[in-house]
Design brief:
284 residues; alpha/beta; 9 helices; 7 strands; globular; NAD(P)-bd_dom_sf; Biopterin_syn/organic_redct; SDR_fam; Sepiapterin reductase; sepiapterin reductase (NADP+) activity
Length: 284
């Protein structure tokens, strides 16, 4: 059941956000910084140090932040690099004392589209490494991150009598492609469907954790531009171009996501879509 005793943004919190160097991840970081009123540790990760630092600069330059007790930490790394993933995850969680926070949040945002220029019949043995890398980033990494996150922010800190956060939330950025087959997007649809299933399982296994799969709708990001310019299937290409023309800015969909989190009426593990809440974006 939803916890109505506390505001989502009203207690000291730690929020770990992947893919925070641009787009939706950056918008989530900025909006969380604006909304949390009792202190916030933002741990941001992405591949580009320059872009991560830009996200941090935008946060620190915003005079609308409610809390002076905010810390932003940037951890540069590639979640798709299997050789360095263990070190990256350790750095994400280092020097965090769970007993200092009442709310722990993990945002599984980092993702990729995969190859949108091929039908299923076009893939072959030469594509095995590309397929493995795609699954690692889009499915395995969220699983590994959630496992590490839960091991740290459990209700009782291991080997001590100290309590961890009373509220734990896991958010994954999903897509309607998790639910609908889209020609030419076999990698993307499969990855999103697997992520949605994974987070449903997490919700079933962890009844004290709030889990949300949020589909942001068509958003003006590099990923949507890439899909618009590289999709092979003519029907999907028309759909993607139309989606881009009707796309919203990242902050618009993140604002709606924050409203969903604050209202806290969703069933844990549910797949909630921006367009289900506000309707499809109108043609510009």
């Amino acid at each position: 059941m939803a916890d109505t005793t506390q505001s989502f943004f009203g207690t000291p919190a730690v929020a770990i956000i992947t893919g925070a160097s641009k787009g939706i991840g950056r918008a989530i970081a900025i909006e969380f910084a604006r909304r949390f009123s009792e202190g916030l540790l933002l741990v941001l990760t992405g591949r580009s140090e320059k872009d991560l630092q830009e996200t941090a600069s935008l946060i620190k330059a915003d005079s609308s932040f409610l809390s002076s007790k905010m810390t932003v930490r940037c951890v540069v790394g590639d979640l798709q690099n299997q050789a360095t993933i263990q070190n990256l995850i350790e750095r994400l969680f280092e020097n965090i004392d769970p007993s200092q926070y009442q709310h722990a949040i993990l945002v599984n945002n980092a993702a990729s589209t995969g190859d949108v220029s091929k039908y299923v019949r076009d893939f072959g043995l030469n594509d095995v490494k590309e397929l493995q890398d795609y699954v690692f980033l889009n499915v395995n990494c969220p699983l590994i991150l959630v496992s590490k996150f839960l091991s740290i922010f459990s209700s009782t800190i291991p080997d001590t009598s100290e309590k961890g956060p009373s509220k734990i939330t896991i958010i994954q950025l999903s897509s309607n492609a998790a639910l609908v087959p889209i020609k030419g997007w076999s990698m993307y649809c499969t990855g999103k469907a697997a992520r949605a299933a994974l987070h449903k399982i997490i919700a079933a296994e962890e009844p004290n954790v709030r889990v949300l799969s949020y589909s942001p709708g068509p958003v003006a990001t590099d990923m949507l531009r890439y899909s618009r310019d590289n999709t092979r299937d003519p029907d999907t290409s028309r759909m993607t171009r139309n989606s881009y023309e009707r796309s919203v800015q990242p902050i618009e969909t993140v604002t709606v996501m924050c409203q969903v989190l604050e209202e806290d009426k969703y069933e844990s593990g549910a797949h909630v879509s921006f367009t289900d809440i506000v309707g499809p974006p109108k043609n510009g």
